[in-house]
Amino acid sequence: MTDKPGIVITGASGRMGQMLIKTVLESDKAELAGVVEREGHDWIGQDVGIAMGGAARGVIVTDDALEAFSGAQAVIDFTAPEATIAFSQLAAQARCVHVIGTTGMTEEQIARLQPAGRQTVLVRAGNMSLGVNLLVQLTKKVAAALDEDFDIEVIEAHHHHKVDAPSGTALMLGEAAAEGRGVTLADVADRGRDGMTGARKSGDIGFTAIRGGDIVGEHDVLFAAAGERIVLRHMATDRAIFARGALKAALWGQDKAPGEYDMIDVLGL
Fold it and tell me: Which keywords annotate this record (predicted)?
């Protein structure tokens, strides 16, 4: 027996899933309590260490998420929106902390997480890194200090496998800029330009998405006015920073009351 929190990783075979598994296994503050994959996946029934091409770890990959969650204190989930919603219901039933790094969720899908947040600790963020969450705070402050003479553009770059755009982090930054200006992002977002679009509308917050190669994640927030530009930038070179942040959130949530939290809460920012 151990007093270390047991962590379950969903989407075990994915790049983030495997990084999360390695991070938990290497931690002296938590233990890997389970790994979950979708029904019919080749990894089901295998020891996760062997499935990942290494030594056995004594943890068998399962498609029974509720059983895995019931024996754990937290689940870390970087999967897909509908899967995350289903996992949130099971995590609430098992009363384990649910850390969500899934991106590409619509407002309607995010709203469907609220019932789970009334029963357990739910930590959701578009990005789990300390640097990005500091960038979010800086973006809010700079946007509040500058008027609409400064156009705001969020420019993000990711690897060519990423399926959603703009990235969850880009949307976090857009929300921060909108909050700083006292507006609603949905009212001012400019998320697509092609052809004869006309001049940029004053006050809009624009988004540019770049996809290519193996870029882990790069985000710039550009404030551009006549004669000057301010650029806030974060560059990630190793996705381990996201895994470490997610584990920090899972440990942080152990003694918290049920509710919806984000990484600003976890980091005390």
Answer: Amino-acid biosynthesis, Cytoplasm, Diaminopimelate biosynthesis, Lysine biosynthesis, NAD, NADP, Oxidoreductase
